[in-house]
Amino acid sequence: MAGVSTATVSFVLNGKKGVSDSTREKIQQLIDETGFVPDNKSRRFYFNKNYTVTLVSSQKASVFDDIFYYEVVQGLDYRSGALGYNVIFTSIRKEDEKLILPNVIHAKDTDGLVFLHEIPVEVHGTVQRLGIPCVIVDAPTTSYDFTVVYTDYYMAAYRATRYLIDHGHKAIAFFGPSRAPVFHTKTFLGYKKAMEEIYVPIPFHWIQSEANDDESTCQALDKLLEDQPAPTAIFCATDMIAIAAMNHARKKGLHIPHDLSFIGIDDVMISKYVYPPLTTVRVDKFEMGRVAMDLLIKKINNEEATSQLVESGEIVERDSVRNLKQE
């Protein structure tokens, strides 16, 4: 229909150079008018690709259990569609204390893998041996042998704590999750750095490091309030920790933020709907997913793909922090 070779049409379909603008426009117009869709089976055979990438989650980080990763997957899915790839979901399961990899990995029936947060130690060697291109999104460390997408949680924690300090708070507690030790350490050090700048000694009971779920977060708040001096504010390493703590604080009869202020990290979508709406440090989760997909495609195409920092740190001001300086 276009009066050109199949190779020229192929160049246009695959976004390659070597076609004049006028010819490219003519071919694209015909594609739009006819609704032409390439035969994926032929494309897979010709390019030796499945045109699928696999999102691998684990018990520690699952898109089905952790609302943080929902927005990461949105970015991943948005970018994959633009690049002509499909995303399939799978998970690492445990049987008799042994991690079991899904067949899609063993069979290499995917062009690449995206892991959420980390690659379990038991899986690390298998992925390397199979040689499947791999990216880790929201990686706690850049020391992996794989390309990672990460954000600066140390700086996010520092900014969150400084925000409390700038609003007149000095008695600030820390709530963090022990089950994510690297993340816990980074957020605690950011908090500690801010506290050191105002020369405030930190009582032992202000440090609650077992806020791993709703139940343990409630227990942490009970422990915090048993002893004196009581803090005026709590920096929580994640929004979900902050939300669980705020709910429990209200059940105990505390008024937020008058009696106790809260700030978190992430800006997950639910943060603006809780009561009171949570002040937090925004992490660009959508961008993390988008960047992860771009890096993975580079690796699939045997191009250089270096680990990338996604800038985060914007304070999202809502109603959970009391401004003591205005009183």
Give the overall shape, derived from the CA principal axes: elongated
Q: Bin the helical content.
A: 40-55%
Mean pLDDT across every amino acid position: 90
Q: Kindly, what is the distance between the CA atoms of the first and last residues, rounded to a whole number of angstroms? A: 76 Å
In terms of per-residue confidence, which ranges show pLDDT below 50 for 5 or more consecutive residues? none
The radius of gyration computed from the alpha-carbon positions, rounded to a whole number of angstroms, is 24 Å
Q: What is the string of helix and strand elements?
A: HHHEHEEEHEHEEHEHEHEHEEHEE
Structural class: alpha/beta
| Main sheet attributes: strand count, strand direction, barrel closure | 6 strands, parallel
Tally of DSSP β-strands: 14
What is the tally of helical segments? Answer: 11
Beta strand %: 15-25%
Count of all domains: 3
CATH superfamily of the largest domain: Response regulator
Which CATH-level-2 architecture of the largest domain?
Answer: 3-Layer(aba) Sandwich
Care to give the gist of this entry?
It contains eleven helices and 14 strands. The chain is α/β, with parallel strands linked by helices and 327 residues long. The protein has three domains: 33 residues, no CATH class; 129 residues, Rossmann fold (3-Layer(aba) Sandwich); 130 residues, Response regulator (Rossmann fold).
